[in-house]
Design brief:
This protein has 20 helices and six strands. By secondary structure, it is mainly alpha-helical. It folds into three domains: 92 residues, Orthogonal Bundle (Fumarase C, Chain B, domain 1); 242 residues, Fumarase C, Chain A, domain 2, CATH 1.20.200.10; 97 residues, Fumarase/aspartase (C-terminal domain) (Ribonucleotide Reductase Protein R1, domain 1), CATH 1.10.40. The protein starts with 13 loop residues before the first helix and ends with a helix. Bound molecules: arginine.
């Protein structure tokens, strides 16, 4: 019989018992549940609601249960509805009457959301640590390949030359913003609902602040109805995880593309590639593809929670039991994706020649040739047209701008002089982008300082 079975004369069917249970999912929250119960018991003792002896029995009993769970000796009873029931039942079986006093002034409604908030806080911190590791790997790679040049793209067409560190650091900034979102989700979870009881608060003289500070929460919730039904902090975590997965999927897509025979820009290490069971020559970027694919599930977790919460009346409704599975999954998936990406970035080989060969295709110097003319007084729109003609000429000759002679240039505009030839050099073109946030190496050096500052600041807030 369940711990709440007093007013029942019949047991639920085996099926409904299984259908209604959340134990298979929420047993992952055992440590938070036990921590919450210990803090609640100590507070009840401090307020004289239960005796000091009962507090000691409860706390040591809960410690024993935790040790048994962690050693694998604890056998979860599949007939228990959830982790709260499992732990409380085991406690009563162990210490008797004192255990039966633990649930004084508490409901599973405030208990479950306390556990979930504690769990979410820990997982946010884990994710923030994994996020920092990935950003560090990107910064290290940016420094390792500081002078490597490659085409920058718009519309997937060659646009202007950029340095590889600039490209890599673009991702470091995306992940830096994700860190902030994860930190905000952790802050959102950092409020203690314990003491809200079932929905309306309780008649016992609880010290809510004591429980909250014992559990390391930054404060207490202000409205009991809101407290037991609010899962916004999980939405925040799921959203942060979704956005970061979207960023990971964009990076993955580039790694997949860059490791094709057509691009050949990078070679992923064997440790992050797989073979084919039929085609002996294959080396597939499976893990980048998997990260790209897992994004769908994580975004699905967010959407599932949004829809579960939609139209829920106050206060607790059993629908809320559906809140944990997606959050646990999203956090685990993102953490794994971060580690996998960190490994992939740290071990990939950059094929400098393949990148720089492509820089010489597709008229990447065209904008700069137009700027050259504009700086000599030709209106930019006119200059644009002149270079358009030069590109047409190259198309006819199947060559690039670098292959044209000074005479070819002069035939289009007499503003062209000898120095146009060196103005076509891809590195000089890229290096000339010296504005803050530009791809010139001078600007990238400054950007690296900013990236490393943000990494150091984020490390210290873990
Ligand atoms: N297993 C439940 C959940 O995850 C715990 C709260 C149950 N409360 C209740 N009144 N049935 O939401």
């Amino acid at each position: 019989m369940a711990l709440w079975s007093g007013r029942f004369t019949e047991n639920v069917s085996e099926f409904t018992q299984r259908f209604g249970a959340s134990l298979p999912v929420d047993k992952a929250l055992y440590a938070q549940d036990i921590a919450g119960s210990k803090a609640h018991a100590r507070m009840l003792g401090a307020r004289g609601v239960i005796s000091p002896d009962d507090v000691d029995l409860i706390v040591s009993g809960l410690d024993r249960i935790q040790a048994r769970i962690e050693s694998g000796e604890f056998v979860f009873d599949i007939n228990d509805e959830d982790i709260h029931m499992s732990v409380e039942k085991a406690l009563i079986a162990d210490i008797g009457e004192a255990g039966a006093r633990l649930h004084t002034g508490r409901s599973r409604n405030d208990q479950v959301v306390t556990d979930t908030r504690l769990f979410a806080k820990t997982r946010c911190t884990d994710l923030m640590a994994a996020n920092v590791a990935l950003r560090q790997a990107l910064v290290d790679a940016a420094k390792r390949h500081f002078d490597v040049i490659l085409p920058g793209y718009t519309h997937m067409q060659h646009a202007q030359p950029v340095f590889l560190p600039h490209h890599l650091l673009a991702y470091a900034w995306m992940f830096a913003r994700d860190f902030k979102r994860l930190a905000a989700a952790r802050d959102a979870a950092d409020v203690c609902p314990l003491g809200s009881a079932a929905l309306a608060g309780t008649t016992y003289p609880l010290d809510r602040s004591m429980t909250a500070s014992e559990l390391g929460f930054g404060g207490i919730t202000a409205n009991s109805l809101d407290a037991v039904s609010d899962r916004d902090f999980l939405l925040d975590l799921s959203y942060a995880a979704s956005v970061s997965c979207v960023h990971l999927s964009r990076l993955s897509e580039e790694l997949v593309l860059w490791s094709t025979s057509e691009f050949g820009f990078i070679t992923l290490s064997d440790a992050f590639s797989t073979g084919s069971s039929i085609m002996p020559q294959k080396k597939n970027p499976d893990f980048a593809e998997l990260i790209r694919g897992k994004t769908g599930r994580v975004v699905g977790d967010l959407v599932a929670l949004l829809v579960t919460l939609k139209s829920l009346p106050l206060a607790y409704n059993k629908d809320l039991q559906e809140d944990k599975e997606g959050m646990i999954d999203a956090a685990r998936t993102l953490e794994d994706c971060y580690s996998c990406m960190t490994g992939m970035i740290s071990t990939m080989t950059v094929n400098e020649d393949a990148m720089s060969t492509q820089v010489n295709k597709g008229y990447l110097a065209a904008t700069d040739v137009a700027d050259y003319l504009a700086k000599k007084g030709l209106p930019f729109r006119r200059a644009h047209e002149v270079v358009g003609h030069l590109v047409l000429l190259c198309d006819e000759r199947s060559c690039d701008l670098e292959d044209l002679s000074l005479e070819d240039f002069k035939a289009e505009s007499d503003l062209f002089e000898e120095d146009i030839i060196e103005a076509l050099d891809a590195r000089s073109i890229a290096d000339a982008r010296i504005t803050e946030g530009g791809t010139g190496r001078e600007a990238i050096r400054k950007q690296l300082v900013l990236v490393e500052d943000s990494l150091a600041a984020d490390c210290s807030s873990l």
